[in-house]
Amino acid sequence: MEYISRTDQDGISRVVIRRGKVNAFNDNLIDEMSRTFGELALDPSVRSIVLTGTGKFFSFGFDIPQFLGYDRERFTRYLANFTRLYRDIFLHPKPVVAMLNGHTIAGACMIATSCDYRLMVPGKARISLNEINFGSSVFAGSVEMLKRLVGPRMAENVLYSGAMYTAEEALRMGLVDRVASEENLEEETMKVAREYAARDPDAFRSIKGLLRRAVAERMEKTERDSIEEFVRIWYSEKTWARLQGKTIHG
Asked: For the whole prediction, is pTM greater than 0.85?
């Protein structure tokens, strides 16, 4: 694969996002992630999964400059694939541990919230659902996952403000589960992954389904309408002007 690498050792699969400096999401990257997680679901040798990025970025979210060249139909297909990916991770039969090695912004934050556990480096790294800052909405599924982690009132604060949170702030609100120094991030993440791997896989799959299936059903009922609304706002005159003025991914 071009943008995703996978290495397996002792029942733990490490999946790494590798796309340029900021690991921005595009069609091919999302397709590769979807195929990888589908394969992992069927691999009996894999007991837990670690998802991470490269450099100082887990991911900076959507590749906005690339998507500015998409028509509505093509962009809608991408969004359907993206939201299907985070739903598949949310319900994945194997435990998924997010090792947030750096900035985790917008769509990348959505992917992180779909995982079972999140560890994040402190310092300059930020995590955010900042779509409102450039005139964009979010998705029904991303709202459900966020509310599940931080509660409805805090979810409003996160989404209305578009604030960029430090690892320590994210920990206090429940958006991440642990803060680990850059030097210790790998070790602490692998410790969590090994703890998950030691659990009975059938029992874990069953309990995870019981915990998450009702949320996933709510996501499924309203996701398509939220994608349509997202696209309508994305292509509105005011949002399109803001997007064209952006010089970075988001």
From this structure: yes
Is a pLDDT exceeding 70 seen at residue 146? yes
Higher pLDDT, 18 or 245: 18
CATH no. for 4-183: 3.90.226.10
Q: Given CA atoms 179, 185, 188, 191 in this order, what sign does their dihedral have?
A: positive
- Which tokens hold the place of 108? 């990348």
Q: Is 102 helix (H, G, I), strand (E, B) or coil?
A: coil
Cα–Cα distance list, 56 to 20, 74, 99, 125, 185 (Å): 11, 30, 12, 8, 13
Residue percentage of the chain with pLDDT more than 70: 98
The secondary structure element, H or E, covering residue 5 is strand 4-9
Best CA proximity match to 141, nearest among 87, 212, 91: 87
Separation between Cα atoms, residue 57 and residue 235, nearest integer Å: 27
Query: Predicted confidence band at 29 (pLDDT cuts at 50, 70, 90)?
Result: very high
Q: Could you tell me which residues are beta bridge partners of residue 179?
A: 120
- 132, 160 Cβ separation under 8 angstroms: yes
H helix or E strand, kind and range, residue 190: helix 185-197
Q: Evaluate if residue 227 carries a pLDDT over 90.
A: yes
Residue 130 backbone dihedrals phi, psi, to 5 degrees: -100, 20
Q: The tokens 């931080």 sit on which residue?
A: 150
The 8 Å CB, 24+ separation contacts for 181-185 are 181/121, 181/122, 182/101, 182/121, 182/123, 185/99, 185/101, 185/119, 185/121
> pLDDT digits over 169-183, tens only?
999 999 999 999 999
- Token output for 198: 């030691």
Distance of CA 199 to the CA centre of its chain: 24
